[in-house]
Design brief:
mainly alpha; elongated; disordered N terminus
């Protein structure tokens, strides 16, 4: 009988089947088959049965090497079938006389088919040749495997029915195939039901069938059930307890439910009268494949000791392990961290004459890479080449991933070049890894080149891998490179972009705070046929929150809910609430919270903490306490962040006793109060002048090693405000020793303390440390430097000139200030180094820069270079000013060039140079440096005469009491 398709049955008449009546069709035939009066034929009956004779021919092929005459035509037949169009396959089979082949040759033809349709049509054609063809289970097994692996459950059902009609009983191999294909389809429970079905037919599972079922359970993660099945089989029991715990995955859209089909077959077919109730009393596995499955099961279940015991039992039983066995044991040994044992197992393979395959070395490469053993890793890879094994896709992926992880740039380049030389295409999963490797190493151009060469390929790569590459650039803030990948992808291969790619580019824009670009990209998504998903909205809302755009964040939240139909999660609401809170829009933050509650989205402690902190920032203690009580009533745990916000709220209104009580309550929490809470208490105490209390909290933090830059800074300025300058200096020095100077602000705080206490050279050294760390001085840093120059009695005219040039943003004005500071505090080499930056400049320099250079070179003793700089200044057409003459006089004095000093002094007396007190003092100092104190006395006398209307003390700028305004530099502990 020909096997009918799912749309027709007997007599060639079309029959419209429903979901349910399809299930029952054909099973009356099965019932009749199983009601045979003699379900267990005698040997005599079997020998007379043509089906049995067919099986005998299968089982006992001719021993002679000579093949039937048709064997020489088999390759030609296979080629003819392969070349045949779909609509003429039957004609091809007719012309090739397939039915004249032996059953074994027909089996070869069926096995060679890669398409389930051809395989099924060939079997149907063979079944139609009733005069020549005798059905046998091997042919049905091949077709069942092809249909099952293609998930053609309707046709598999019909094939099973036809198998019963043809009086071909299913064998252990048939059931093993059914269990395998159902397991591969994820229908684990249905696969196990086939075990019960075969027992209902009086068939006990053999070792292959049992091993298949155990493997299916192992791959599904049902380790305990798999072990139970193995133990029951060994003990001769076939009960399978607990199979009902495995879930169902039926999909009505795929046609007849495979579970429905199987259950109908199980419960509508009556059991034969002579069902074997149990198997042999005790069984031991005899196949290496069974032990391999068992060892792998224990390994994946994390029971490494049991896996080793199974391996030992395998050896005791005398079953020779194969390559798969050793591969699994090598993996287990390496997973336990015992690489030496893994290497010994590799040696055992050589002793037993078992050749390792490429998977063996893939496992070893992974283990060596995980252990960071670079030498062994390369030795293992070299051995692959020695054994002339061909690396597969997994090998190349492991090697590339491992080399990138170990940051071996040259080796990565060599590996890529080798793959290119042998025509090996880098697999998709490795592309983002290599791009990330180059980007992490700062080799952006190389990453771009790799992308252009390997990622823009025919057919393209998957959207997820494009998104991963864009994300690599996004994580580093390289939005231009991310944008280039996004825009270039579609143009290069003509494919549409996916929502994942839009999402990561939005992320890149968000990290770069380029909100306009992100919103423009979002607005253009729909016009390109891409609809934003929940991740898109979450990223945009988060970006709008960070960029202080609360109104935009709120609008996106409404659009996400009302237009897109997504239900925002509490994280999304939290971002919008935080956005309003940071802007001081407390009432709007409360409105978002109330909307969140109306939608039934339960807030967590982060949401409540944000609201409490928002009320604390504006000093609304009652509002903070209200949401604190709501949080407690909700049963959410009160954490340190919430309590810290309440402490802050109490501090805003001066309720230090309440803050202290909360701080004491935090002592009972696990780990005690954190550094943020402690810093808040220090700020409260210092604000109220409570020295001992602030000192006590600071000491505890310091003893625990938890004091951070905020702790030290707060105490430093507290001591300074109390007039305890020595204490402030001690804290500043300790802060420097503690390695807490990590940013410009922390450096500024310590330098301010040094300047206040007159430690000018130490301040200059700290400035140098700051520059070495590539930290650019900010406006407050320069304010400190100007104060330092004044405290160091730098000519006030020079300070004013430097400050004016810096404020105007003139070229190299910053370097001039830094060089002047270094020169003043005696760090002459550093001062000269700072001057080299503008000495080599091709741009036009102003008087300020030249004056700083003359001062620097003169102070360092390089008078010739100072005078050359002065001549260069004149060549540029710049006229010397008061600061220039002051610096020149200093140079002449250090060089004992008395005539040069006299010349400037003469011009000052003549009126060619404007009378200036700083210049008089510089001339007097120059004479003293040159050893002419008599001339210095005359200059001092004339200076007193010219400035007799002013007291001498008034001529000096009193900066002793000058206060450094550090309000905008001091870290605000409330914002941590």
């Amino acid at each position: 009988m020909i096997i009918r398709s799912s749309s027709e049955f007997s007599n060639g008449k079309p029959l419209h089947l429903t979901r349910h009546n399809k299930v029952f069709l054909g099973f009356n035939v099965l019932v009749g088959f199983h009601r045979s009066p003699n379900p267990k034929p005698t040997l005599c009956r079997l020998n007379r049965d043509p089906h049995h004779r067919n099986l005998q021919r299968h089982a006992n092929p001719p021993l002679s090497p000579a093949m039937p005459s048709t064997s020489s035509h088999l390759p030609r037949i296979l080629r003819a079938i392969d070349d045949s169009p779909e609509d003429s396959i039957e004609q091809t089979l007719e012309s090739t006389a397939l039915d004249d082949l032996s059953p074994k040759q027909q089996t070869v033809v069926l096995q060679s088919q890669r398409d389930w349709r051809r395989c099924l049509r060939i079997l149907r054609w063979l079944r139609s040749r009733t005069e020549n063809y005798i059905p046998n289970p091997i042919h049905y097994n091949i077709v069942i495997r092809s249909l099952g692996r293609s998930r053609q459950w309707d046709d598999l059902r019909l094939c099973w029915i036809d198998m019963a009609i043809a009086r071909v009983p299913p064998t252990n191999n048939t059931y093993a195939i059914l269990i395998d294909v159902y397991g591969r389809a994820g229908l684990v429970k249905e696969a196990l039901l086939w075990l019960k079905h075969m027992r209902s037919r009086g068939l006990y599972p053999d070792e292959v069938t049992m091993n298949t079922a155990v493997r299916v359970l192992k791959d599904a993660g049902e380790f305990d059930l798999a072990e139970s099945l193995f133990i029951d089989w060994c003990a001769g029991r076939d009960e399978l307890c607990g199979s009902d715990s495995i879930g169902d995955d039926d999909d009505p859209a795929t046609g007849i439910s495979p579970k429905h089909f199987l259950l109908t077959e199980l419960f509508r077919v009556p059991l034969p009268k002579s069902v074997e109730k149990s198997g042999p009393s005790v069984r031991k596995p005899k196949l290496a494949a069974t032990y391999n499955t068992l060892i792998d099961l224990y390994a994946k279940a994390g029971r490494l000791a049991d896996a080793s015991e199974a391996f030992a039992d395998m050896l005791r039983t005398g079953i020779a392990p194969d390559t798969y066995t050793f591969n699994t044991m090598i993996y287990i040994s390496g997973h336990r961290g015992d690489l030496s044992e893994a290497e010994q197992l590799l040696g055992k393979m050589d002793e037993r004459g078992i050749l390792p395959d490429i998977k063996t070395f893939n496992i070893l490469l992974t283990l060596y890479a995980s252990a960071g053993n670079v030498k062994a890793f390369f030795a293992c890879y070299d051995r692959i080449k020695t054994l002339k094994l061909r690396p597969d896709v997994v090998t190349h992926r492991i090697v590339l991933h491992s080399l990138c992880q170990m940051k071996l740039v040259r080796e990565v380049d060599k590996m890529i070049n080798r793959m290119e030389r042998f025509g090996v295409v880098i697999d998709e999963q490795s592309l983002p890894v290599v791009v990330k490797h180059y980007v992490d190493e700062g080799m952006i151009e190389k990453a771009n080149g790799f992308y252009e060469k390997h990622c823009v390929r025919d057919g393209g790569i998957s959207p997820m891998n494009y998104a991963a590459i864009i994300d690599v650039y996004a994580e580093k803030g390289l939005w231009e490179e991310a944008e280039a990948v996004f825009l270039g992808k579609g143009d290069a291969i003509g494919r549409e972009k996916h929502v994942e790619e839009y999402n990561v580019l939005i992320k890149a824009y968000g990290k770069a705070r380029m909100c306009d670009k992100a919103f423009a990209l979002f607005d253009g998504m729909r016009s390109n046929g891409v609809w934003p998903d929940e991740c898109t909205y979450n990223s945009l809302i988060q970006m709008a929150s960070v960029c202080e755009l609360p109104v935009k964040a709120r609008g996106l939240l409404v659009e996400m809910r009302e237009k897109a139909g997504f239900r925002p999660r509490y994280e999304t609401f939290s971002a919008v609430i935080a956005s309003h809170a940071r802007m001081g829009l407390v009432s709007d933050a409360v409105n978002v919270y109330e909307e969140m509650m109306r939608l039934g989205v339960e807030p967590n402690e982060v949401v409540y903490g944000t609201l409490i902190d928002a009320f604390a920032e504006v000093g609304d203690v009652d509002g903070a306490l209200l949401y604190y009580s709501i949080m407690e009533e909700s049963g959410l745990p009160v954490n340190q962040i919430v309590l810290t916000s309440l402490i802050k709220a109490y501090g805003k209104v001066g309720r230090w006793e309440d803050a202290q009580e909360l701080y004491s309550k935090m002592m009972d929490l696990e780990g005690g109060p954190d550094v943020i809470a402690s810093n808040s208490m220090i700020k409260i105490y210092t604000g109220l002048g409570m020295v001992q209390e602030a000192k006590s909290v600071f000491s505890v933090l310091r003893d625990k090693g938890q004091a951070d830059g905020v702790s030290f800074t707060t105490m430093m300025y507290f001591y300074k405000s109390m007039g305890m300058l020595d204490k402030a200096m001690e804290v500043a020095q300790e802060m420097q020793r503690s390695g807490l100077l990590t940013d410009c602000t922390s450096f500024n705080n310590v330098m301010a303390s040094y300047v206040t206490n007159g430690y000018l050279k130490e301040c200059g050294e700290l400035l140098h440390s700051m520059l070495v760390r590539k930290l650019l001085p900010n406006a407050f840093t320069f304010k400190l430097m100007f104060t330092l120059l004044k405290k160091g009695h730098f000519p006030i005219e020079a300070v004013d000139q430097l400050e004016s040039s810096y404020s105007a943003g003139k070229p190299y004005s910053r370097q001039a200030v830094i060089a002047s500071v270094f020169s003043l505090v005696g760090l002459h080499d550093l001062a000269v180094e700072a001057c080299e930056a503008f000495e080599k400049a091709d741009t036009f320099l102003n008087n300020t820069v030249y004056n700083a250079a003359i001062l620097t070179y003169g102070a360092s003793g390089n008078v010739d270079k100072a005078l050359n700089t002065f001549m260069r200044m004149q060549d540029e057409g710049l006229k010397p000013d008061i600061v220039t003459y002051i610096n020149l006089v200093c140079c002449y004095g250090k060089a004992r060039m008395i005539e040069g000093v006299k010349r400037i002094y003469s011009r000052l007396n003549c009126g060619d140079i404007e009378c200036n007190e700083s210049l008089f003092k510089a001339i007097s100092d120059a004479y003293k440096d040159a050893g002419r104190r008599d001339l210095a006395a005359l200059v001092d006398q004339e200076m007193k005469f010219n400035f007799f209307m002013e007291q001498e003390s008034g001529s000096e700028l009193d900066v002793e009491d000058e206060e450094l305004d550090v309000e905008d530099e001091e870290l605000d502990v409330d914002d941590e």
